[in-house]
Amino acid sequence: MFEFFNRRKKLTYLNEDLKPSERIRNLLQEYILPELTPFGFKFNNSDLTFTRQYGDFENTISFQKNKWNKGNEVCAFKPIVGVQSKILGSYYSKLRGDKSSPIGLCGEYDVTNIKDWNIKYFDGYYDLAKVDNLELIKILKENILNAGLNYFDQFKNYSDVVSYYYEAKTKYFLAPYLFDLCFLNNDKECAEAVLKWFIEFERSTTKELPETLTIEMREREYKFNITT
């Protein structure tokens, strides 16, 4: 009888015969991709990233492998979410005459900062070698489909992004990007608000701002004849 009550539930481990990189890739392809495909996501095998175009921006969910992964001892990974602008990337590419790449605007390197993200099984990484794999997959899917997609829903267009940082009063180093987003959308009023937002911070902060950041914002002020 005591053996019955003390008996532990047998854990399920999937694809233990695969190397960690292949094992993680297989899990994402088999269990996460089918859930995200209806929402417009595509999966890149080489960098373990799900990508879709959503509103004005590109949404990404990438998976970083733990550098200590080894056989069945450690098989860990962490999700990272991002919101990027191809329009900004193309704009800067034309100005500089180089190759275009999306500009990151929002995102979370630490998913525990995302509202309603369930941290069960997550200690900075999810480790397939430590916990029941089916349970881990269930939690991961729920997190992505609920907390993750809700996070992306905040950022459908340029005004969503500008309002997010303006109200949060944070990430002032993004001011040049936010300003340019407004102007690329012919919204001078929004650009003025971004410039004033930055100048107020510049005047009130005790932190030393990078000189290049201040110069960039002054150039925009004069170039587009913005009055503050």
Write the layout of secondary structure elements.
Blueprint: H1 2-6, H2 20-36, E1 42-44, E2 49-54, E3 57-65, E4 76-85, H3 86-96, E5 103-108, E6 126-127, H4 133-153, H5 158-168, H6 175-184, H7 188-204, H8 211-223
Antiparallel strand pairs: 1-2, 2-3, 3-4, 4-5, 4-6
Helix pairs in contact: 2-4, 6-7
Q: What fraction of residues sit in β-strands?
A: 15-25%
Alpha carbon gyration radius? 22 Å
Tally of distinct domains:
2
pLDDT average, as an integer?
93
Helix-strand category: alpha+beta
* Major sheet: 6 strands, antiparallel
Low-confidence stretches: none
Put simply, the count of helices is 8
The arrangement of helices and strands along the chain is HHEEEEHEEHHHHH
Distance between the termini: 79 Å
Helix content: 40-55%
Question: In one word, what is the shape?
Answer: elongated
Instruction: Tally the beta strands.
Output: 6
Would you write up a description of this structure?
Helices cover 46% and strands 16% of the residues. It is α+β, with helices and mostly antiparallel strands. It has two domains: 152 residues, no CATH class; 64 residues, no CATH class. Strands 1, 2, 3, 4, 5 and 6 form a six-stranded antiparallel β-sheet that branches. A hairpin with a 4-residue loop joins strand 1 and strand 2. Helix 6 packs antiparallel against helix 7. The mean pLDDT is 93.
